[in-house]
Specification:
This protein is α/β, with parallel strands linked by helices and 216 residues long. The protein folds into two domains: 1-67 and 122-181, Alpha-Beta Complex (DHBP synthase); 81-114 and 182-216, no CATH class. The protein has helices spanning 8-23, 44-54, 69-74, 81-90, 125-134, 157-160, 162-167, 204-211; strands at residues 2-4, 27-30, 37-39, 63-66, 77-78, 95-101, 117-121, 138-142, 170-174, 185-188, 195-198. Strands 1, 2, 3, 4, 5, 6, 7, 8, 9, 10 and 11 form an eleven-stranded mixed β-sheet that branches. Helix 1 (8-23) packs across helix 5.
Length: 216
């Protein structure tokens, strides 16, 4: 099913339904500041369902979307000096940071090989409002299958995942058609020195211009 997601009223109308949907181990497609994403809650059932839909190994981690620093802190994630500066300069926005911490609060299967968990404070105002209303982070990955392009709009999602939408396992939030924006820039902040993993919407030159010597 596709539901409207273009105003604050739309968010408020759908928030409880989305929360219950995710807590039942089901999935969500939604607009972000980059591309349409797919997500679940940070539970084994949700992560299993998301891995199946994406056709990827269940051990490959997904990133988390938060609605602010308070939610990040409540999840037990730790900010290095570099992470704090990068977050101050670029959050909310299309920057994903890999952070240590979260033991006992987040599933270990969210961790990458470096031991950290990828997280982004989204600058999509309606998505941030929804995540805040839910009260917990949600996972995020691009709305595509391996080798395919992410959907630019909600109406394209049923064409990629028809069975999941038809069964009601995948709820689609219609935030309109997004621009041709690269994915988020990904920086590993698990060590003493930040490391650029993927250059995306924020180029390395801008990271260095605004974060100085603490940038990767």
């Amino acid at each position: 099913m596709i539901v409207p997601f273009r105003t604050e009223r739309d968010v408020d109308a759908v928030a409880l339904r989305v929360a219950n949907h995710l807590r039942a181990g089901k999935l969500l497609a939604y607009p972000t500041e980059t591309v349409y994403g797919l997500g679940s809650d940070a539970s084994d059932a949700g992560l299993d369902a998301l891995a199946r839909l994406k056709r990827r190994p269940p051990t490959k981690p997904f990133l988390l979307i938060v609605s602010g620093l308070d939610m990040l802190t409540a999840s037990g994630l730790a900010m290095t000096p570099a992470a704090r500066v990068l977050a101050k300069e670029f959050w909310p926005g299309p920057l994903t940071l890999v952070l240590r911490g979260g033991e006992g609060r987040l599933p270990d299967r969210l961790r990458g090989p470096e031991g950290g968990i990828a997280v982004r404070w989204t600058s999509h105002a309606l998505l941030a409002r929804l995540v805040s209303a839910i009260g917990d982070p949600i996972t995020s990955t691009s709305a595509n299958v391996p080798g395919g392009a992410p959907s630019a709009g909600a109406t394209g999602v049923p064409g990629i995942f028809p069975d999941a939408v038809e069964s009601g396992d995948l709820l689609v939030l219609d935030g309109g058609v997004l621009g041709n924006v690269p994915p988020s820039t990904l920086v590993d902040c698990t060590g003493p020195v930040a490391r650029l993993v993927r250059e995306g919407a924020i180029p390395r030159t801008e990271l260095r211009a605004r974060a100085g010597s603490l940038a990767p």
